[in-house]
Amino acid sequence: MSQVHEQATARIGFTELVALLHQVFVNHGTSPEVAAILAHNCASAERDGAHSHGVFRIPGYLSTLASGWVDGKAVPVVTDVASGFVRVDAANGFAQPALEAARALLVEKARSAGIALMAIHNSHHFAALWPDVEPFAEEGLVALSVVNSMTCVVPHGADRPLFGTNPIAFAAPRADGLPIVFDLATSAIAHGDVQIAARKGERLPPGMGVDSLGQPTQDPKAILEGGALLPFGGHKGSALSMMVELLAAALTGGNFSFEFNWADHPGARTPWTGQLLIVIDPSKTAGQAFAERSQELVRQMHAVGLRRLPGDRRHRTRAKSQEQGIEIDRKELEHLQEIAGL
Ligand code: NDP
Ligand code: PYC
User: Fold this and answer.
1) Domain limits for position 61
2) 222-249 per-position pLDDT tens digit
3) CATH number at residue 9
4) In this predicted structure, what is the pLDDT of residue 7?
5) Is 193 a catalytic residue?
6) Does residue 209 have its Cβ closer than 6 Å to ligand 2?
C-alpha cells in the first residue's frame, strides 16, 4: 500500500508573503502603514534565511500588540535637530516606521554634511538589524546601526544579567558586488536562536549561557527559564554591548535594556528601547574610490583563502528564494493564512 506523506514545507513568493503578513498585522491592531513596513521586514528576513527574525517572530509581535505594550498605529515624530542630527520619537511604536519616517531627511543630511545620525527613542525593535542598513549601502552610503534589547546578558566579569543582546549592523558599498554587510548580536547567541533551539529540543554549543544559579549550561531552556546569556568574546563583546547601551539608549533618550518593566503587560515581548543609525557619504572623502577600495579588500580576503563573507549565506538564500519561492514550514504557513482570515 502506498502512503502519501504531506510535504513538511511549502514555497511562497516574496510579494505573496508580504501581502499575507500585511493582512496578519492589520488584523491584529496595526495601521496599514505600519503593517506594510513590518510585513516587508519580516518577509525579507524569511526570504534571506534569517530565521530567528522571520515568521518565527509573528506570535511575539501579535502577543505584544494584544498586550497593549506597543502602539501598532503610532505616528513617529521627526525633529530636525542639527545639520547632522535627526531625532525621532517612535511614539511607543515600532522602530522601523520611525526610521522610514526620517529616512529621506537622514540621507539628505548625510549627502550634504558627509555624515549624519538618526537617534530613535521610545521605540520597539523586534527584528533583524541588517534590513535597516543594507539599503543605504545599495545607494552608495556607509551605514552603522545599533539597537539595545532586554536584560538577558551577563556583562563579562559580573554575576547577573544587565545588558541586552544588543546587535551591531554595518553596511558598505563595493564596486563589483553586493554591499558588504554584517549584522551580529553582541551576545554569544541571539535570544531568538535560543528559543528556536529550545523548541527543537537541541543543545547549544558551550559558552553561550548560564543557568539560574550562574553555572554554565548548554540547555536552552535553562537559559530561558531564569538563566542568562554571555557576551561573545568575553570582555571584548561585553565592551561592545556596553557601547550599544550607550549609543542606542543614553544617546537617543531611549531606555537602557534594564530600564523598562513589562510585568504589567502579560504577553509583551518587544524591548522598549532606542536605536542609533550613523550614515556616511564616502564620496566626500574618496569619490568613487571607496567602493573600489571595498572591492579590493574583498579580493584580498578571498586571495588569502576566505570563502564566506558575512552576508554571503543570506544573499545565497535570497537568490534561491527568488528562484524557487521562500521555503516555509507548511503548518506555519497555514496558521498565517488562518489568522490573516484567508
Ligand atoms: P550570526 O552569528 O548568525 O551572524 C552574524 C554575522 O556573521 C552575519 O552577518 C553572518 O552573515 C555572519 N557570519 C556568520 N557565520 C559566518 C561565517 N562562518 N563566516 C563569515 N560570516 C559569518 O547572527 P547573530 O546570531 O549574532 O544575530 C542574528 C540576528 O539577530 C541578527 O540579524 C540581529 O540583528 C538579530 N538580533 C536582533 C536584536 C534586536 O534587538 N532587534 C537583538 C539581537 C539580535 P550571514 O547572515 O550571511 O550568515
Ligand atoms: O534575538 O536577541 C534577540 C532579540 C531580541 C529582541 C529581538 N530579537
Assistant:
1) 1-67+311-341
2) 999 999 999 999 999 999 999 999 999 9
3) 1.10.1530.10
4) 82
5) yes
6) no
